[in-house]
Amino acid sequence: MLAVAVALAVATGSAAVTTATAQQEKPGTSSEFDFSPPSGPPGTDIRVSGKCEWQGSPGERAFVSLGRRADDGGQPIETHRSYTVQPDTTFAGDLPVPQDFPSGSYTLSMDCYVQDEAFGTQQRTFTVTPGPPIGTTTTTTTTLPNARPPIPVVAAANLTG
């Protein structure tokens, strides 16, 4: 019997985390999917994490995609990444929103995999907001000269024994 838990949005500071759990028909098979933030401009790193458990064992990988179909409005567009599921059944990583994604509502989807079999599919909504894209940060380091000039030697002592 397929039972899907209701999504729970939890505010943590200025970012919200959305969590959901899906139970599959096979005993011991489940998935969880979290992501944060729920929206952002192009260049935003969406932090994705969760669990993939297949009949009591860890899944092999989690496949996460962000995209929209033509019937969702606009051109079809998608980006995706695959994350290795750890021995404790968890996965985590960042999925960057590409710089060329126009603003609008997108489907954030996660599928767990064992070999070529998908299970634990979860779908959420992520909103790409208008605004300047988030770029890479550049750090500049400047080395300043010593504030004190060197002290000149005025006289040398002639030491003889």
List keywords for this structure.
mainly beta; flat; 161 residues; single chain; seven-stranded antiparallel β-sheet; 12 strands; disordered N terminus; Immunoglobulin-like
Give an account of the 3D structure.
The chain is 0% helix and 52% strand. It has 161 residues and is mainly beta. The protein has one domain (3-128): Macroglobulin (MG2) domain (Immunoglobulin-like), CATH 2.60.40. Strands 1, 2, 3, 4, 6, 7 and 10 form a seven-stranded antiparallel β-sheet that branches. A hairpin with an 8-residue loop joins β8 and β9 (77-84). The chain is flat and about 45 Å long.
Topology of this protein?
Elements: E1 3-4, E2 8-12, E3 15-23, E4 30-36, E5 39-40, E6 45-54, E7 57-58, E8 61-68, E9 77-84, E10 90-96, E11 104-114, E12 117-128
Parallel strand pairs: 5-12
Antiparallel strand pairs: 1-3, 2-3, 3-4, 4-6, 6-7, 6-10, 8-9, 8-11, 11-12
In short:
By secondary structure, the chain is an all-beta fold. The protein contains no helices and twelve strands. The chain has a single domain, classed as Macroglobulin (MG2) domain (Immunoglobulin-like).
